[in-house]
Give the backbone structure.
Amino acid sequence: MSGTNTSPPATARKRFDFAYSVRWNLFLITTGAILYSFSVKSIALPQQFIPGGLFGLGSLIYYKTGWLSPGIFFFLFNLPIFVLGWVKLSPRFVLYSLYAMIVTSVSFELIHARLDIHEQLYAAVACGVMSGLGGGLILRSLGSGGGLDIIAVWLFQNFNIGVGKVYFAFNAGLYLFCLTTMPLDLVIVSLIMVFISSVIVEHTLALFSQRKVVFIISDHSDSIAQAILDSMKQSATFLRGMGAFSKREKNVLMTVVNNIQLKKLEEITFTHDPHALFIVENTFSVLGSSFSRRKIY
């Protein structure tokens, strides 16, 4: 394998530095945390829905006792967890997560709004979409929302227990307990809300991370690679290939682009070689170079 250019262009480096700057991460966390708090305070709380995770546990205690509020319970539950995180995980991840937890708790207490959605199913959909978008924005940062995120990461690193399994086990126990104390319809609609939220989280992360891996097989791969470097300011890599029928070696050009760049790359390719083979594959995790930096826990 040989690379045409191993260092990212200056514009890509600037984009990379901005995406991982403190300002950008704080913006993502602040926006996501406020959106999550608004959805829970204005929709889930009036409907008495049970969100997943520690906020859901705090909500359940609040509904049954009237003590404090779900936001304060969420803050209190997180305190010992952050002690564990500070000792076992990276300071950067913990500090960003601590900021997310504080903004979530404070904004929940400060928000005084109620969306009058009379149909429970509609309310579950609306709350699931907003909370999922908020949670996805937080997870797109270099931190997390705190709570189960920190426990799940620690268990994964030390005992190889999948993050999804931790969430599933906790929420399964939470909703099984809810079945003994709450109406069945309310538990079901809460599950619908959490399911929609998890789907939106995945789509929000994909919106930021989705890339296209493109393989170009052409007798003019050198000129195509140069055009990519010159006009798109995008690096590319040559892979050595051999035709199964002709037994002739040729370069296979590989590059990674986003959805916006894909059409331009297609035009460059077929302008230089109308007979080129243009292969596109979806990918959601591209780390290094000018793309994404690995999230260190």
Observations:
- The chain has eleven helices and five strands.
